[in-house]
Amino acid sequence: MDKGDRSGVLAPRANWRWIGAALVALITAGLLGISLGPASLPPFDVIREVVGSAISIDQPSSLSVTQQDIVWSLRMPRVVLGALVGAMLGLAGSSYQGVFRNPLADPYLLGVAAGAGLGATTVIALGVGNGNGAAVPIAAFTGALVAVATTYAIGSTLGGRNAITLILSGVAVASFFTAIQTYVQQRNVDTIRQVYAWILGRLTTTGWGEVRLLLPYVVVTSVVLLYHRRLLDVLSVGDAEAASLGVEVGRVRLVVVVAATLGTAAAVAVSGLIGFVGIVVPHAVRLLVGPSHRSLLPLSMLFGATFLVLADLAARTIVAPAELPIGVITAFLGAPFFAVVLRTSRKVFT
Asked: What does the alpha-carbon distance between residue 60 and residue 313 come to, in Å, rounded to a whole number?
C-alpha cells in the first residue's frame, strides 16, 4: 500500500479528531461570547448558568435577574445567530469551491451579495417599514434569489450550465445589480449611512426571532450539502470524468448551487454582507485536513461558526460601548490570511 492509500485509511480517525477539536473550539467561543461584553458579568457565574441549563441541573442562579436577561435575551441569541451565519457561510463557501472547482469561489459568486444589497438598499431608500423590521431581510432574501436565478437563466442561454459559463454570468449579473444599487444610493443620499451599516454586516438581535427565522434554512441546506459531499469529491476530477463514472453532473451542480444559495441568502438577509468567511474558512480547513469534501464540509461549518462568533465578540468589545461592523473585523482578519493562503493554494489543489 502506497503513502496515499495509507493516508486514506488513516483519514477517518484523524478527521474525527479534528471534528472533536472544532466542537471544543465552538463551545469555548460560545461561552466567551456569552460571558464577555460591554456589560460586566462574572464569567464563571455565566458559564455555570449556561452549562447548568444545558445539562438540566436545577440550581439557584448566582446571577441577578438583570444579568440573566442579558445572558438569555441578548447575548445567547446573538451568539447562536453568529454561529448559524458563520456555519452557513463556511459550508456554502466550501460547497461552491467544490462544485465549481475554483479555490477563489465564495458564497457570493453567482450574485447573492449584489442581489441582496440591491433589495436591502431599495427598501431602505424607499423607507418601507422605516427601513427596519422584516422588510429589509425579506427584500435582501428576495434580491439574492432573483440575482442567482438571473445568473442561471443567462448561463442557460449562453450554451449550458457548466462551471465557467455560470461564473462569468454571475460576474455580469453582480455588476449589473451593483450598478443599480449605486444609482439608488446616489438618488437617496440621506439613507447611505443606514445602507452601509447593513452592507458591512451586523448581528444585532431583538431576541430569538432572527434565530428562528434562519434555523430552518440552515438545517435544510446543511442536510442537502452534506449528503452531496462525496459527489463533490467525484466532481473534482472534472465534468467529463465524473459523467463517465455515472454522476449526473448538471443535476448535482444545480442541487448544490440551489441549496448553497438558499442558505446564503437566508444568512445574508439577517446579518448583512459579511465577507471572507466563506472563502477563508474553507481554505484554512483544507490546509488542515486536505481537499476531501467528506471532511471539508462539516469542518467548514464548525470552524465558520467559531470564527464568526469570535469576530462578533471582537466587534462589540474593541471599541465598547460602541460597536464595529462585523464585516470590518472579518475583512481585517481574513484579507491578510487569504493573501498568505494564496501562496499555498496551488499545492493544496494539486
From this structure: 28
- What single-letter DSSP state applies at residue 190? G
Q: What is the 8-class DSSP label of residue 37?
A: S
Q: Which three cell numbers stand for residue 163?
A: 462551471
Q: Residue type at 149?
A: A
Supply the pTM of this predicted model.
Answer: 0.91
Count Cβ neighbours within 10 Å for each residue of 276-312 and write b for 16 or more, e otherwise. bbbbbbbbbbbebbbbbbbbbbbbbbbbbbbbbbbbb
Query: How do residues 24-42 score in pLDDT, each as one tens digit?
Result: 999 999 999 999 988 878 8
How far apart, in Å, do the first and last CA atoms of the chain sit?
A: 21
Sign of CA dihedral 26, 32, 37, 41: positive
DSSP single-letter state for residue 106: -
* Residue in the block written with cell 457565574: 45
> What CA–CA distance (Å, rounded) separates 65 from 29?
24
Alpha helices by DSSP H, the chain: 3-35, 43-54, 65-69, 76-99, 112-126, 135-157, 163-187, 192-199, 209-227, 229-235, 239-244, 249-271, 277-289, 293-317, 326-342, 345-348
d(CA 326, CA 305) in angstroms, rounded, equals 14
